[in-house]
Amino acid sequence: MYRIFAIFSISLVLFASCNDNNKKYGYVRMIFEHHWGDSIVQFDGTTQYVNTAGNILTFEKAYPIQYFISNLKFNTVFIPGANNLNVHYISSDSAYSTLLLTYRIPERRYNTISFTFGVDSTKNKSNLFPNPPQRNMFWPDPMGGGYHHMKMDGRWRNAGGTATQGFELHLGDLKKTVYDTTWIGGSIAKIDTLERTFRNSFPVEISKHFEIRENEITTVTVIMDMKQWMENPYMWNFNVMGGAIMSRENAMDSLKRNGEHNLFRAK
């Protein structure tokens, strides 16, 4: 009986291997672009962009937008990243990072691209990346460790104003001490000290129809509309929100919620 079972098991493995060998694979060239509405963002320090609050923004080459995406999938097919972690680093100043050439994608029609914006919480641990530029995206250990989901830096000023100020819109998983107060009869009975982590990654799903053919390269362009970070559902007014948000969970939450609304599209 054991011999029969062993022969049957080997037959199944051989059948699966042969079946896999019969599959056909193609390639996808993914290009990431960064727009403000319909125009490609110029990181030249002079081109001006106006948000819905009337703040005038500029972006500089020295401070590119940098972020991670993880759990990248076409339909249900996972796309490997660095060290097969399925974590991809993207920076507007690096043609290498904004062009991902995937491999061994099964030949078929696809209709969705999905990923987590940022580093998935199951992978977001300190020292995950030993080398730059990914290593330089570290999130401070006292604030929770791991890595930034995004760094978006630039300068802003008010309409009609001349003074400019820098901004650093950084997202990460923020760990903070919070206090839970118990009230009894209008008096404080006790105050509990709790450690809470505010998660600021979020899922993205893009509708995109494309077809993979055997040994052919299919190009898919994914566009981040950076204007969306500034609006819907929260109008981002630098006079109110300020420019540095790393330790402020409410400000990061507002930015995250804006990112969850139509931040990405594909062409």
What report would you give on this structure?
The protein is mainly β and 267 residues long. The protein has one domain. Helices cover 13% and strands 42% of the residues. It contains three helices and 17 strands. It has helices at residues 2-21, 238-241, 249-259, and strands at residues 25-36, 39-40, 49-50, 55-58, 66-74, 77-78, 87-91, 99-101, 105-106, 108-117, 150-158, 165-171, 174-184, 187-198, 202-212, 217-225, 264-266. The strands form three sheets. Strands 3, 4, 5, 6, 7, 10, 11, 12 and 15 form a nine-stranded antiparallel sheet that branches. Strands 1, 2, 8, 9, 16 and 17 form a six-stranded mixed sheet that branches. Strand 13 and strand 14 form a beta hairpin.
Keywords:
3 helices; mainly beta; 42% strand; disordered N terminus; 267 residues
Low-pLDDT stretches are 1-19
Radius of gyration: 23 Å
Number of DSSP helices? 3
Terminus-to-terminus distance: 57 Å
Structural class: mainly beta
Please sum up the structure shown.
The protein has helices spanning 2-21, 238-241, 249-259, and strands at residues 25-36, 39-40, 49-50, 55-58, 66-74, 77-78, 87-91, 99-101, 105-106, 108-117, 150-158, 165-171, 174-184, 187-198, 202-212, 217-225, 264-266. The protein has 267 residues and is mostly beta strands.
